[in-house]
Design the sequence.
């Protein structure tokens, strides 16, 4: 898995590429913890190049969402489509996160 | 009493068992008749090939309309062994067109009708054998058949547009009529909404008539044909008798097979658009639908009409409008039966200008072609299946590329090897049979927990899916369950030694079994709460178990003598 970080209009965008499973999710978890540390952080996780997500991946997303809430930060997901979207639906996660279709909409929602 | 147990999707306004208001029923019926009527050019083409008079052509059209009406009602019947039990009206099929043209050339109309009835009997027999035959009629071959039907329609369309084989060359005004007709159909289909879009083909045809009249390609003599046609009359059914020619048995059997394969696809689509809980084809409905079509074709042969098949565009129209009530099928049936006894209705179609026929044929061919491609690509294709489709397609093209070579074949072989549709289908069926040799329906994989490679596990499932020609969505689900289960077992169950995976497939079922030495994996029916998932790895494992259970159609977990096995079952 690769995580690319960039700043877009005051929003930290994390582009996740590859597989998010028990072996790789700790790495994303650490990055999310770091960027959500700051109060009122604005974070967008772009999953448009994500191929697979396991229960371990969902766990770190839930933990990140909780951390965002505690720090009055904002966490938005985008590019959740195809097989990955089915897994979000299957696990009952679609309504738990703020999810937008495109990166542009995601940046606007996070600002 | 409703006999189809379904959960109506939100997009469906009037479901299969519901009764729309009478106005909606009739208007919906007329819309279907509009798109079905385009294909009434096929019996006209056959009549022109046989140099029949207007009156004789009118009789063939009447017989065909009667068959279309009876067929629409049969498909909609709510109970009994006959019919798909859905709104699935028939249409004149190009699958029977090419063999019928052969028959007309070699034995006249009696041979065309006798062989059409024979094709209907073959379909009737096939309808009883669909389940055991399914491995030999895989989905990608049904897609290929649809593509080949589109190619034969394309051939016919251009013959009309370019005047190939006609003593009268095509002139500029005729090209203008064709361009206006095709542009209207495509333009309305692409850029309009609502009613104009739904009626795009019909509007295009009407415009074609108008432009043809304006440029002098629809004369007063043509209009006279409508004027002199009586309002009501009893058509001269079965006026030609029937005959049989063994050399045409294969082409008509292939036409029947193609129609049968298409029926399976269309009826499956009917089931899918009517049921949010749809998982797999319900074979009783499919068999009943194929049987109804076979009976319609036997009736068509007896009465002197053209061969029919289920109609993908009608199923698509029902889905697009949200009116899928079987009562619309009864309305279509009633109106077509009525039209069969109204010669003026036949006369309007009878005078259809050559470029309008060509444009309408090309318009529908384009839609059918892409539909066929979509059916082919809905399955995972490995090297074997790639060659089945690729070589069969090229064999079919060879017939059209090198007609001179095939024309030299002995008369007995010409009907089989001189038809792109027939040859392509036969090559595909033969190659499929050959390539089935050596394909193991059960495959194993050993996973070393110390060297867990999720990508290799997914690749195993993907490769098996392609080898078996399994549905992509089912393989995706199985791949997730296999990868996630192994990941969770390795993390939480501390397996002693390797994990053994066994995947087996038989067209209807995909079973994936994971066995290991260690405690069983929990597969809870209730999702753990978010707090439980976040609080501990135990919560995460229970989430994994919950998702594994939900993604499979059935799961079974056993634990004996320290050995645990999880079976994931997927309906296919």
Sequence:
């Amino acid at each position: 898995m690769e995580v690319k970080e960039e700043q877009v209009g005051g929003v930290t965008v994390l582009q996740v590429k590859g597989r998010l499973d028990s072996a790789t999710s700790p790495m994303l978890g650490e990055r999310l913890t770091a960027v959500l540390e700051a109060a009122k952080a604005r974070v967008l996780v772009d999953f448009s190049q994500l191929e697979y997500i396991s229960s371990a991946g969902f766990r770190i997303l839930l933990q990140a969402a909780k951390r965002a809430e505690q720090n009055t930060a904002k966490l938005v997901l985008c590019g959740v489509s195809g097989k990955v979207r089915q897994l979000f639906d299957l696990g009952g996660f679609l309504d738990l996160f703020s999810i937008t279709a495109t990166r542009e909409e995601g940046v606007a929602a996070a600002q | 009493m409703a006999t189809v147990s379904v959960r109506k999707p939100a997009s469906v306004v009037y479901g299969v068992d519901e009764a729309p208001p009478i106005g909606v029923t009739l208007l919906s019926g007329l819309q279907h008749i509009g798109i079905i009527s385009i294909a009434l050019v096929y019996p006209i083409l056959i009549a022109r090939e046989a140099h029949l008079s207007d009156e004789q052509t009118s009789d063939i059209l009447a017989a065909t309309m009667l068959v279309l009406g009876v067929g629409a009602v049969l498909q909609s019947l709510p109970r009994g062994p006959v019919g798909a039990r859905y709104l699935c009206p028939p249409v004149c099929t190009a699958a029977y067109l090419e063999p019928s043209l052969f028959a007309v050339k070699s034995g006249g109309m009696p041979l065309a009708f006798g062989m059409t009835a024979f094709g209907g009997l073959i379909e009737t027999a096939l309808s009883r054998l669909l389940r055991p035959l399914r491995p030999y009629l895989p989905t990608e071959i049904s897609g290929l058949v649809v593509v080949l039907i589109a190619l034969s329609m394309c051939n016919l369309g251009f013959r009309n547009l370019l005047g190939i084989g006609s003593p009268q060359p095509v002139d500029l005004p005729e090209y203008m009529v064709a361009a206006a007709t095709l542009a209207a159909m495509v333009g309305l289909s692409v850029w309009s909404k609502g009613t104009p879009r739904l009626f795009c083909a019909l509007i295009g045809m009407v415009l074609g008539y108008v432009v043809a009249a304006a440029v002098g390609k629809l004369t007063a003599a043509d209009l006279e044909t409508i004027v002199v046609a009586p309002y009501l009359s009893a058509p001269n059914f079965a006026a030609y008798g029937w005959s049989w020619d063994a050399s045409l048995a294969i082409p008509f059997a292939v036409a029947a097979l193609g129609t049968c394969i298409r029926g399976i696809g269309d009826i499956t689509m009917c089931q899918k658009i009517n049921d949010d809980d749809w998982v797999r084809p319900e074979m009783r409905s499919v068999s009943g639908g194929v049987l109804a079509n076979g009976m319609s074709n036997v009736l068509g042969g007896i009465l002197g009409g053209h061969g029919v098949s289920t109609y993908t565009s009608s199923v698509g129209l029902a889905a697009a409008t949200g009116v899928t009530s079987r009562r619309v099928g009864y309305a279509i049936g009633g109106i077509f039966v009525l039209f069969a006894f109204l010669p003026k209705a036949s006369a309007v179609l009878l005078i259809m200008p050559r470029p309008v026929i060509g444009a309408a044929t090309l318009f529908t061919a384009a839609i059918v072609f892409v539909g066929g491609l979509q059916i082919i690509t809905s399955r995972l294709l490995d090297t074997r299946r790639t060659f089945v489709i690729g070589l069969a397609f090229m064999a079919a093209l060879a017939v059209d590329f090198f007609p001179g070579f095939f024309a030299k074949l002995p008369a007995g072989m010409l009907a089989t090897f001189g038809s792109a549709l027939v040859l392509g289908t036969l090559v595909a069926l033969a190659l499929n049979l050959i390539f089935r040799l050596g394909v193991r329906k059960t495959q194993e994989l050993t996973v070393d927990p110390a060297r867990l490679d999720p990508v290799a596990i997914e690749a195993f499932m993907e490769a098996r899916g392609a080898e078996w020609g399994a549905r992509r969505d089912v393989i995706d689900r199985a791949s997730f369950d296999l990868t996630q289960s192994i990941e969770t077992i390795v993390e939480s169950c501390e397996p002693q030694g390797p994990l053994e995976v066994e995947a087996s497939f038989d067209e209807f079922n995909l079973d994936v079994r994971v066995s290991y030495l260690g405690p069983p994996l929990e597969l809870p029916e209730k999702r753990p709460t978010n707090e439980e998932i976040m609080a501990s790895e135990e919560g995460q494992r229970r989430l994994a178990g919950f998702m594994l259970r939900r993604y499979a159609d059935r799961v079974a977990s056993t634990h004996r003598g320290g050995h645990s096995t999880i079976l994931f079952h997927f309906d296919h």
Q: What stands out?
A: Chain A has a mean pLDDT of 94.
